[in-house]
Sequence to fold (510 residues):
Amino acid sequence: MTSPVLKASQLTKRFGEFTAVDGVSFEIRPGEILGLLGPNGAGKTTTIQMLLGLVTPTSGSIEVFGLNLSTSRETILQQVNFSSTYIAMPQSLTVEENLWVVARLYGVSDIAQRIDRVVKKLEMDEFRHKVTRKLSSGQMTRLTLAKAFLTEPRILFLDEPTASLDPDIAYKIRSLLKEERQSSGLSILYTSHNMREMEEMSDRIIFLQRGRLVAEGTAQAIVEQFGKADLEEVFLKLARESDTPLS
Amino acid sequence: MKLYRVTALVLRHLYLYRRSLPRIMEIFYWPFLDLVIWGFITLYLARYQTQVPGFVTFFLGALILWDMLFRAQQGITITFLEELWARNLMNLFASPLKPSEFLAATMVMSVMKVTMVSIVMGGCALVFYSYNVLVIGLWLLPFVLNLVVTGWIIGVFTTSLIMRFGQEAEVLAWSMVFLFQPISCVFYPMEVLPVWLKGIAWANPAAHIFEGMRVVLSTGEAPLGNLAWAVGLNGVLLIGVITWFYWTIAYCKDQGLLVRVGE
Fold:
């Protein structure tokens, strides 16, 4: 069995008395799409922020490509990227200027060709010279995806990447992600509130509830584990449990 | 430190100036306005104040040098604020960019701003008041370099505070430097300060530069003592403030503040 590209062990994050992530362990294998599911406040965002080195874990460790994130941050982040519907790019720059800056920041070679390729891939030609503040939310999402693809990462963290896209573009993005995974062995950590999308995209899913990992496996295995009809029902059950005040 | 990451960030900020009139105004308009107002005040006071030799030279020279310090500080802090306003900090700190590279990029921006402002103010002083800033002579270069470093120290300190306390501390970007103005002895000699404040002013590198400037202009002597104090204090304070910046980043990462700083 191949060694994982990412291994989180007993990951815990406390903010004062509040425990956002509580002893979570998981792995991402090469070329795998791992779904990260959980209701709001389950600890998904904090987990991703720890994986990106933006938040320091209270305890536990993160190994990426066999290296410890706390000691090999630069080497690891050179090969990792992320995209989220909820992040912004500098609004006063054009789409192309933003991509140039990202490419230089990651030391990408053949920048012009690489930008051309990613612009074509994400069908961004019509707005590549547009100032970012004038983009629609769907175009903005494609820009953040382009930023992530541009650096040809080995691991991609995608936080609701299709949330603001129309069904046609969302379908194309999903197809593109699958292709990239096939062709380059890209590993992806994927979050979405669209359960059908999660079932379609994820090889495996980990389910967080109140900062704890409560289920792990294929979508089918998780559905069976909870005795529900589909993943949406599992999600609703866990989300409603989360709403119940803790005694 | 990787040079390409520093230039990437510098490029990102230069792109901003391409199509932003307010940002260009920040470089040209305010320094120009400062010079016009203070220039006329200086001319007016010079008519009635004959005891101080080279009154105009003192005041206009001091004003131009003070503006260099101010712009050096702004170059650091505003560059950080631009990232905060654009909600781009997450993109930067989740990239391989190191804090040292981030600081280096803000320092490059700072030097660019100081250069532009110096040209504008020096040119305007010559045209409107027949005042040549180069009258300070070769000492101008070490003076300016030291003031730029003092500006960086205040800038990095302010940036750390904004990072720690969030956008509500943004006002410090414009106000913090003025806290240093009374103890920088820009327009008056250190001897006029009360004893207790004199001690604080001695710890401020800028005060030694402005003292040095007055020594050069009034006696023509080499202000080596003042320069040595300024260089020494700048070195110690710069190391201290960079350590503080690193500590603040580590603290913000621990508290999850880095991803919320723009909210």
Summary: Chain A has nine helices and ten strands. The mean pLDDT of chain A is 92. Chain A touches chain B at residues 13, 15, 46, 49, 52-56, 73-75, 77-78, 82, 87-93, 97, 100-102, 104-107, 131, 147 (CB under 8 Å).
